[in-house]
């Protein structure tokens, strides 16, 4: 059985950027009557339809090294208030229990100082491997260098923009779906759902390069349809989302009123915090703005979607599956074999295809990894 310890590290030094709003042109006229070029709209609708399929066979690794015994993993979390980070941590713990390793989780508390302290503590523990859980390794360059010097393999989750191995920073692998595909499909959902006529707000966290890159890609895809107008891009750091999002939503409602028809957020949690402000303004949960999360598909997002309360869709990460993949990648590193290179396909969940589930959990991966590890 895996031993699991939750630790807290760091001080309350707030180095995050504060919430900012940037507007896409002035004045903003809201949804355009122009719509989309037919080919653009058709492409968006086809992509969304494909991503909404649920009977997807396992297309990941089916071979690899047998389980290496007696290893210890430290999972350094950006913040355990981020549901995606928490979901992956649970997947790592579940997989470690199967393979026979121990796991310790250290919470960076969402601040640069806290994350640095958490990773320093992880390195000092001299574990077999360390997970960079949802933060920019550039924040912790000194600690990353110390881990590299100590020959402690690092595996990232949403740590850098691209999946797979990284030389700078030195990651054995970075686990994520393709951020380009997630951004494209979340924007395409807006294009398809609105039939090419929408006024959109994007919620992002510019303090995290992964999130900033995702939101820029979302805006680029929205711009392929002239009938979709970007009303605002709201920069709200994830640790500040609970306190700042309701205020931002109230201001957006006052500024744009009926022009605001759709939203895309880099993380579903923004809509948990937006719901009270939308409800207080008298907005029905199943009406505009129609909201889609471009990650991570936590249980509360599925609950909002299934109950049609202020969120219509999510592009969920397969969080548990990615936790299992992290353990498998470490096993490959410990066996001196290359990373698997696997990237999970992108999926869109709605009330019509969720089946009442509270997270996206594609089939096949547990048995596949058990077979690989001989467990």
Automatic annotation (TrEMBL):
Task: Quote the InterPro entries the UniProt record gives.
Answer: Peripla_BP_I, SBP_2_dom
State a single Pfam family of this protein.
Peripla_BP_4
On the tree of life, the source organism's domain of life is Bacteria
Name of the protein in question = Sugar ABC transporter substrate-binding protein
- Which intervals hold domain Periplasmic binding protein? 73-328
The species this protein belongs to is Kitasatospora aureofaciens
């Amino acid at each position: 059985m895996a031993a699991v310890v939750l630790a807290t590290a760091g001080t309350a030094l707030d180095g995050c950027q504060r919430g900012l709003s940037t507007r896409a042109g002035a004045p903003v006229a809201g949804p355009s009557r122009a719509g989309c070029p037919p080919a653009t709209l058709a492409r968006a609708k086809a992509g969304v339809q494909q991503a909404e399929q649920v009977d997807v066979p396992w297309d990941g690794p089916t071979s690899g090294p047998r389980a290496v015994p007696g290893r210890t993993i430290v999972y350094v979390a950006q913040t355990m208030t981020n549901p995606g980070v928490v979901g992956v941590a649970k997947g790592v713990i579940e997989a470690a229990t199967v393979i026979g390793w121990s796991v310790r989780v250290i919470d960076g508390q969402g601040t640069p100082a806290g994350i640095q302290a958490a990773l320093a503590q992880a390195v000092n523990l001299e574990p077999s491997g360390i997970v960079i859980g949802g933060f920019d390794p550039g924040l912790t360059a000194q600690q990353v260098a110390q881990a590299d010097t100590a020959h402690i393999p690092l595996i990232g989750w949403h740590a850098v923009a691209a999946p797979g191995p990284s030389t700078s920073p030195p990651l054995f692998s970075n686990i994520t779906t393709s951020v380009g595909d997630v951004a494209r499909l979340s924007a395409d959902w807006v294009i398809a759902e609105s039939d090419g006529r929408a006024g959109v707000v994007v919620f992002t966290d510019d303090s995290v390069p992964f999130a900033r890159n995702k939101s820029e890609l979302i805006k680029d895809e929205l711009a392929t349809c002239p009938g979709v107008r970007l009303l605002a891009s709201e920069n709200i750091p994830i640790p500040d989302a609970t306190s700042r999002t309701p205020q931002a939503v109230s201001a957006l409602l006052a500024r744009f009123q009926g022009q605001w028809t759709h939203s895309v957020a880099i993380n579903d949690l923004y809509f948990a915090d937006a719901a009270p402000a939308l409800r207080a303004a008298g907005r029905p949960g199943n009406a505009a703005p129609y909201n889609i999360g471009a990650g991570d598909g936590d249980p509360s997002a599925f609950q909002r979607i299934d109950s049609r309360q202020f969120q219509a869709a999510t592009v969920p990460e397969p969080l548990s599956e990615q936790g299992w993949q992290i353990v498998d990648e470490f096993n490959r590193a410990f066996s001196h074999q290359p990373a698997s290179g696997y990237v999970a396909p992108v999926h869109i969940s709605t009330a019509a295809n969720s089946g009442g589930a509270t997270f996206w959990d594609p089939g096949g991966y547990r048995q596949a990894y058990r077979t690989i590890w001989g467990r």
